[in-house]
Amino acid sequence: MTTYFNEMYDSGKVRPPYARLEDWTRSMPAELREMKQAEAEALFRRIGITFAVYGEGGDPDRLIPFDMFPRVFTSGEWARLERGIKQRARALNAFLVDVYGRGEIVRAGRIPGRLVYRNAAYEKAVVGFVPSKGVYSHVVGIDLVRTGADEFFVLEDNCRTPSGVSYMLENREIMMRMFPDLFRGNRIEPVDSYPEKLRRTLASVAPTKCERDPTIVILTPGHFNSAYYEHSFLADLMGVELVEGADLFVEGEYVFMRTTEGPKRVDVIYRRVDDDYIDPLCFRPDSMLGIPGLMDVYRSGGVSICSAPGAGVADDKAVYTYVPEMIRFYLGEEPLLKNVPTWQCSKTDDCKYVLENLHELVVKEVHGSGGYGMLVGPKSTKAEIEAYRARVEADPGNYIAQPTLALSTTPTFVDEGIAPRHVDLRPYCLVGERVELVPGGLTRVALTEGSLVVNSSQGGGVKDTWVLAE
Q1: Which of 156, 171, 275, 281 is 20 to 30 Å from the Cα of 425, by its Cα?
Q2: Which residues form the Circularly permuted ATP-grasp type domain (predicted)?
């Protein structure tokens, strides 16, 4: 039987980070817990924190399940994670500058050229162009799992438009409203500086043609997008305009925003629109979400796009396996955070092993996200495994596989009281003139007993994440 690391209890004793939470939970009557849970749901609904589940008849907006039991890290644990996350973000950006330039890592034989140059996320439209400050991925979401007291693994990297930061901020706000005494009794590092840090990061990568305080906007696909709440939330907190493609236009060497006072030049676009849709003259001609001519302005240095078009090649799940090599190649350092052992089905021997052991592995599509298109072997039926086998055999290069990790558990409020549930963590690393992140991140929790899938689209919930001050 698989044993899982319990982040609160060690051999029946409470681990130090959770010491002050034991009495809190024991002294909370079931009626109070139910009242507080209802209060949290009411706050989420009033604020409008919902997400859409695509493919379920009209993309219904849902409340993301919120668990009131916080996840806690010591300052020492966080310091170690922070160093590893920053190291990884620097290496990923160095890789992007390289593969859109001379491709030294490919020339040196450290990563196969086919994984880069034949990758669907590799954008030829930006080859030879170096973005402002040499930064391609300005918000890097690193998904982490824990398997022991000192064992952390990177599950995947998100270099394009990682979502969820609004939940990180709102989880904290709601916890502070509902349990002020809990915060007075614990010294918890704040996360509310994230919007200020994000704005500073975006301003720091303004294009060279910008000779004044940069005008920043957030480009959203619109209110039908599953993360629209987050787009409007961040725009409000940063004090910048939230725009759609129709609100912007290109004239000469610059991008302008339509306002009631006339056109206003835009310098930095924090885009939450996929590459394919940002410029119909360069990418998909049928896109109604982008700005015609945007890429010409971008390549001439008239506007910065964050994250840069083409950044997605760095978070491909096959490229992921080479990130430790990137760290050694570009930084001359050993990786501080481990990758999960990964088999690439594009390799004959790896594919053979995967097909023989599907019942034990987690298999993912190389370009998949949100928990869709994956197989969790130990939790799947024989019929599901055989159906997935056919998919892998039909297109081996589209899949990677990983062992089923013994994800750590944290206490979680369930109908019966408190029970352990599996969790992961997504911190958000900001990369501009400096590399920084707030102490914490988004903890996602698999609310179904025994489930290892934490994605909200697959029934997962979220928790507040505490980093204790020294």
Answers
A1: 275
A2: 70-446
Judged by DSSP in three states, 367 sits in coil
**Do residues 264 and 175 share a domain?**
no
Phi, psi of 326 (to 5 degrees): -60, -45
DSSP state of 309: T
Q: Tens digits of per-residue pLDDT, 42-100?
A: 888 887 766 555 444 444 566 788 999 999 999 999 999 999 999 999 999 999 999 99
- Is-above-0.85 flag for pTM? yes
Note whether 56 and 173 are same-domain residues. Answer: yes
Strands 254-257 and 461-467: unpaired
The model's pLDDT over 175-214, given as tens digits with 9 standing for 90+, comes to 999 999 999 989 999 999 999 999 999 999 999 888 889 9
> Residue 167's closest CA among 466, 374, 463?
463
Residue from 334, 329, 398, 342 nearest 103 by CA = 329
| Start-to-end CA span in the chain (Å) | 37
Cα–Cα distance measured from residue 70 to residue 72, given in angstroms and rounded to the nearest whole number? 6
- CA atoms within 13 A of residue 205's CA, in its CB half-sphere: 31
AA letter at 336: L
List, as one string, the DSSP characters of 159-209.
-S----HHHHHHHHHHHHHH-HHHHHTS-B---TTHHHHHHHHHHHT--TT
Q: Are residues 181 and 117 in the same domain?
A: yes
* 296 and 425, same domain (yes or no): no
Are β-strands 139-148 and 248-251 bridged in parallel, bridged antiparallel, or unpaired? unpaired
Domain assignment present for residue 37? The answer is yes
Query: 283-301: b or e for each residue (b if 16 or more CB lie within 10 Å)?
Result: beeebebbbbbbbebbbeb
Tokens of 232: 């409007």
Q: Are residues 359 and 457 in the same domain?
A: no
Same domain for 78 and 182, yes or no, is yes
Distances (CA, A) of 150 to 103, 402, 406: 35, 20, 14
Q: Are 192 and 169 in contact (CB under 8 A)?
A: yes
Indicate whether 146 and 91 sit together in one domain: yes
Whether residues 296 and 327 share a domain: the answer is: no
